[in-house]
Design goal:
Elements (H helix, E strand, L loop, with lengths): L4 E7 L5 H11 L5 E8 L3 E2 L2 E2 L2 E6 L1 H18 L4 E7 L1 E3 L4 E9 L2 H18 L2 E7 L2 E4 L4 H8 L5
Helix pairs in contact: 2-3, 3-4
Length: 156
């Protein structure tokens, strides 16, 4: 089963979650729940003050990985609509990085699918993040906690 609608975007410009949620509600019948998540650039990482985060990607690879995750979520849960928007470029603390919104007939499917998409997005989508701390820049390493979060879905 595939979601009736899927919106997957990679963009430099900011997004408006309310606009995306209104679009979902207006475009699809049968929605009983929408679960959403918005990721924000942290101002502190590893006890260091972050001034910017730059996200780089290969568009075709990233689009394909996001599409596979959306398709997998649609195969696991009853999804009516799914939206994934991920930003790239240079962002500042408190800027929005990513949003995932999942519409379903029932809350359990919407919550589970939204969490699944974020867990997989963090570990399976080829984005490279570079933080600027003071006058130094460093590439952000993958976190074991993100790998563990994604791994738990393999058992389901």
């Amino acid at each position: 089963m595939t979601a009736h609608r899927q919106t997957i975007k990679m963009q430099e410009e900011d997004f408006d979650l309310n606009v995306e949620l209104q679009r979902m509600r207006a475009a699809s019948d049968g929605i009983g729940a929408i679960a959403s998540f918005v990721g924000i650039v942290r101002d502190i990482n590893d006890e260091r003050e972050v001034s910017t985060m730059t996200l780089e990607h290969y568009p075709a690879m990233t689009q394909k990985a996001l599409q596979q995750i959306a398709d997998e979520a649609s195969n696991r849960w009853e999804i009516i609509d799914i939206t994934i928007i991920h930003r790239f470029g240079t962002l500042r603390p408190s800027d929005q990085i990513v949003t995932v919104a999942v519409a379903s007939g029932h809350r359990r499917d919407a919550f589970a699918a939204c969490e699944f998409v974020m867990d997989y997005l963090k570990t399976k989508v080829p984005f490279w993040k570079k933080e600027t701390i003071g006058d130094h820049a460093r590439w952000v390493e993958a976190r074991a906690t993100d790998d563990a979060a994604a791994k738990r879905w393999e058992k389901m």
